[in-house]
Amino acid sequence: MRNPMLRSSVSLAIAVSSIAVSSAHAQQARAVDMKAADARAAATVKQMTADEKVVLTHGIMPLPLGGPTPPMPADAIAGAGYIPGIERLGIPALKETDASLGVSYVMGIRRDFSTALPSGVAQAASWNPDLMYRGGAMIGSEARAKGFNVLLAGGVNLMRDPRNGRTFEYLAEDPLLSGMLVGAAIRGVQSNNIISTIKHFALNGQETGRKYVDVKISESAARESDLLAFKIGIEQGQPGSVMCAYNRVWGEQACASDWLLNKVLKQSWGYKGFVMSDWGAVPNIEAALKGLDQQSGEQLDPGVFFGDKLKDKAASDPTWKARLDDMNRRVLTAIYASGLDKNPAKPGGKIDFAANGMVAEEVAKQGIVLLKNNSALPLAKSAKSIAIIGGYADGAVLSGAGSSQVHGEGGPAVVRPVGGKGVWAGFIAQQYHRSSPMDAIQALAKDAKVTFRDGRYIADAVEKAKQSEVAIVFATQWQTEGLDVPDLSLPDGQDELIAAVAAANPNTIVVLETGGPVKMPWLDKVAGVVEAWYPGARGGPAIASVLFGDTNPSGRLPLTFPASEAQLPRPKLDGSDWVEPDFSGGPSSGSDKLTADYDIEGSDVGYRWFARQGAKPLFPFGYGLSYTTFDSTGLKVKGLTASFTVKNTGKREGAEVAQLYLVDRAGQAKRRLAGFQRVNLAAGASQTVNLTIDPRILADWKDGGWTMPAGEYTFALGKDAETLGTPVKVKLPAKRWKD
Ligand code: BGC
């Protein structure tokens, strides 16, 4: 179904400029001081009345959601959440908006626009914490300009299954990479004197039956994988709030899990901020005793638990009273730490969409991954004829859907409604941002005759491809929150289209706009493959810049591209026959019994699973090509520091992502990313890289702490998780420590 909203004439002024990313950003980013804020919060709690103590603990979703809509407070902004303030004590209301890719559009109600960053996985493919910081700072500034003081960003669930419908929103399958990147993004968001979340805590690995799925995983496996990503993210980013997840863990809802919230987050890690619930994830009032501090979007829950009911409990029971004080103290700690009261966000701030668009474009450029190149790329700007096929590439680039959906300036260029039943039916559609790859290609290949075919008719597309020097097929895989993809194929007959075009033109390039990995049965037949993900507000110019070599591709895969679903720990996604109950409150047609057994792979998520199985993926974690070549040599490991030299051995400037892997520990094969660094190098230039290895990456979680056995630890530099250099051994002593 094609939509008349497609405007092929969308034309943006294309100023392809490279933004120097300065690491100064990361350095300037002062971590928020949670300790000082905590002391101030404790003093405020002492002044609060019993009524005031149940103000910060719950709030509504300030949106007309159907059904009885609670009255909208005068100062609420249409968005994800609203928690009233307490004027007498100078405590501001919390005004919350989604999410990690920009300020979300919430069904268009606010009638404003925001700058869309590329998808989370695209951001992560940059392997660049400084750039993550800049992206976070940019979207945080837009949230602030709209009057929001909480950005529900920081999505960092590990990608245990690439079919997860939110793969596009998350970052990576590795805990070190995910944690470092999310921490930097959170620092960026919070540099605007607003609070960022980190979410969804934890083990929220699939959308199918997401409120019901019960995750089984051993504590050690969880601590070494998903929880480690959160821990590193919290250390690096100091988020004011942790959003707990929808799923169950060992039979408990994550938002009422004593183990996750009290034991791990607050006791073991000493987290001082507050836990907010995901929307509609609070089962009962007891969740408060299990560690939940704030009930969000309360009209979506079976009841308002954290208001008067909580006040009554606190009035009669000292345990509840102490808990309620702690809940307030934690919310206030986050408010004070980010300076929400001293530097209040006000609606009506100015947004420089041109400047912010350039940040989005830079993220897209650094996140695009060149997967295959038979020397066809970069394309010559002198090309005489270029056929562009599919993907609405004459006017737009794809985005992912759900709560993170952003509307860029002018609204979407294409909206394709999605049918089907369930929670998300009617709410979501496939939306394409208004950024034209075709216009950007034409701007760089000025003399070329650039033609477009939408790809519905294969013979017609083939005809155009035959008449052109180069054929570029834009292939899409749409993902959305709320639904997993059934398999890793490109939908809608696109494989057939690509194969036919490739048979007709040896210079066929495939540009993928996918949420995550897809299978490529036509891989051998095409001259080049570029993974552009969902490339955001200025995806068109970013793609063109990579295709023509103005940008030397430097993205690396933050997750494995499997050759087939059979290689995954769960060849069939748990609950593929699941029927999601709807919001209408009728009898649930979804079964309550759905289990995800994460002990199959344990902490060996992604490439670690592939290494353990000896399975060969289509493209490994860490993989990505460049238009130049690099050599990393001279690896030396001393204790927990590694050093080596990276050299650009080719003819043009480029960026390498140096990757250090643990490959063996005390005679046991292992594969763990132990460190990474992105290095920009002029042709012929070299640089020494020093990495400090986080001992948790080398350790196992055992009996309540981290344990490193004494012995020889073997490391290797990797072009990716599979292409490893000469191993280097270092003897390390046994070590044991608490988290
Ligand atoms: C999502 C969260 C989001 C919240 C508020 C939930 O459905 O899981 O990521 O922040 O809605 O919109």
UniProtKB/TrEMBL annotation:
<keyword id="KW-0378">Hydrolase</keyword>
<dbReference type="GO" id="GO:0016787">
    <property type="term" value="F:hydrolase activity"/>
</dbReference>
<dbReference type="Pfam" id="PF01915">
    <property type="entry name" value="Glyco_hydro_3_C"/>
</dbReference>
<dbReference type="InterPro" id="IPR017853">
    <property type="entry name" value="GH"/>
</dbReference>
<dbReference type="InterPro" id="IPR036881">
    <property type="entry name" value="Glyco_hydro_3_C_sf"/>
</dbReference>
<dbReference type="InterPro" id="IPR013783">
    <property type="entry name" value="Ig-like_fold"/>
</dbReference>
<keyword id="KW-0732">Signal</keyword>
<dbReference type="InterPro" id="IPR002772">
    <property type="entry name" value="Glyco_hydro_3_C"/>
</dbReference>
<comment type="similarity">
    <text>Belongs to the glycosyl hydrolase 3 family.</text>
</comment>
<protein>
    <submittedName>
        <fullName>Glycoside hydrolase family 3 C-terminal domain-containing protein</fullName>
    </submittedName>
</protein>
<feature type="signal peptide">
    <location>
        <begin position="1"/>
        <end position="26"/>
    </location>
</feature>
<dbReference type="Pfam" id="PF14310">
    <property type="entry name" value="Fn3-like"/>
</dbReference>
<feature type="domain" description="Fibronectin type III-like">
    <location>
        <begin position="656"/>
        <end position="721"/>
    </location>
</feature>
<dbReference type="InterPro" id="IPR001764">
    <property type="entry name" value="Glyco_hydro_3_N"/>
</dbReference>
<dbReference type="Pfam" id="PF00933">
    <property type="entry name" value="Glyco_hydro_3"/>
</dbReference>
<dbReference type="InterPro" id="IPR050288">
    <property type="entry name" value="Cellulose_deg_GH3"/>
</dbReference>
<dbReference type="InterPro" id="IPR036962">
    <property type="entry name" value="Glyco_hydro_3_N_sf"/>
</dbReference>
<dbReference type="InterPro" id="IPR026891">
    <property type="entry name" value="Fn3-like"/>
</dbReference>
